[in-house]
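User: C-alpha cells for this one?
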Amino acid sequence: MKKLGVVITDGVGYRNFVLSDFLVEAEQSFDEVVLLSFLPKSVYSDKYRVIELDAYQEPFTSWFFRKFKEVAHLQLHKKNNFGIQDGLNVNYSRSKNARGFATRFIFKLTSVFNSERWIQLANRFQEFTFKNNAITQSNLELLQKEQFDLLFFTHQRPPYLATLVLAAKKCQLKTASFIFSWDNLASKGRMAAAFDYYLVWSDLMKKELLQFYTNVKSESIHVVGTPQFEPYVLDRYKSSKADFYQMFDLDASKKTICFSCGDISTSKNDELYITTIANFILKNEIEDVNFIVRTSPAEDPKRFNQFVTDFPFIKWNYPKWNLSRQGHQEQWSQRIPSVQDVIELRALLEYSDLNINMLSTMSLDFILFDKPVINTVFGNASNGLYDDQRFLEYVHIKHVVDSKATRIAKNENELLQAIKSCLAQPFLDQEHRKNLKNLQITHSLEHTGKRIAQSLYTVS
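Assistant:
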C-alpha cells in the first residue's frame, strides 16, 4: 500500500496538477492520494480528499536567515548571469525600517560569505527559528497521523513550504518537488528547502539544477515534462474553429492576432504595445485582422479599462480565474482557474494566427501549436520606457533569442514588419520553433501526468 501527499500552493499549481491528468494517473499508481492545500478546500471536487493547510507567517528571525540564503545564492551564482545580477538589484532595499537595514547588512555579509556551506548553515539556522512554531508542530502531527510514503510539492519556491519540509524531515518522510517554471533555476533565488527528489521539464533544466544546486545528485532528478501544457492534448478542452470565432465574436474571414499580457510587475509596457498594434490597424498598415487581447490571470485587468472605450474593435479575453478568498498575504495566489478558461486559452492558442507578448511563457504555449510569435521589447535604459530589453540577457530568454524561434521587435517599425512577415509566411520559423520546444520540454505533451505519477511511485 502506497500513499501520496500532494501539496498544492496556489492557483497555477491547481491548474497544472488538478486540471491536467496528473491526479487521475496518480490515483492509478498509488493506493491513496491526498491533497494538502494552501487553497480553500471548497475549490476542489468532492471526489478528492483535501486537507487545508495554514501558511506560516514569518517572524523577523526566520525572514533574516531565509533572506540570507536567498541573497547568498544570488551572490554565489551572479558571475556571467545577468538575470541573477538583476535579481540582486531587485532584492536590494533602501528602506529605512528594520528589514531594510537588515537587507543591506545581509548584502554586505553575503558579498563574502556565500558558499554552498554558508547557505546550508543559514538554512539550519532558519529551521531552528521555526522548529517549535505552532504551524510546524501542526504539520508534524498531520504527517505522523497520515503516514504518507511520499510528499510531493508542486512548487519549490514559496517560503511557507519550509515548515512542512522540516516536519517531513523529522518524520523521515521522503519529499519530491516539481520545478515550477522555465525561469526558476537560472534567473530566480533559492528554493524554499532541500528535497529528496526533483521533477523537471527537460534535460536543459536538469543541467541547470545540477549547476545551481551542487548538493543535488543527478540520480535524484527525473525529467518528466510539465503538466501546464498537458490540457492542450486532452479532448475535454478541445473546441472547433467555429467555436473559437463564436466564443470571441471574431470575423471568420480575417486572420487573428492575439496579444497576451504579462502582469504589471514585469510587463509595464503592455499598454504601449496594445496601442501600437491598434494604431497599425486603424491606419490600415495591417489589414483584415481580428485583434484580441488576453490579460494576465495574476492581476485585475482594470489598467486596460480605457482601452475598451478607445479601441472598440479590440476583443478582450479576461481569464476566468476566480478569487477564492479575500485578505490573503499573497492575494494573486488565491485566484483559481476555471475549466472554461482552459478551453478558451486552448482555442486562442490553436486558432489564432499570430501571438505577440513581452517575453512570457506564452511564447512556448503558442509555439506548441506551431504559431509564429513576436516578442515586443521597446524599452531600454535610455529611452524613458520601462527597460524590458534587459530581459533579453536573462539565461532562459537568451535560449529563446538564440533559437530564432520568435521575432524580437525593439521598436514600432520592427514590430510592423514582423507582423506582416509572420502573417504572410507563418511557417518561416517552423524548424526553429520545433527546436526550442524540444529544448524546453524534453518529452511529448501526451501522458505527462502519467510520467509524473510513475516517477513519484518509483521514488516513494
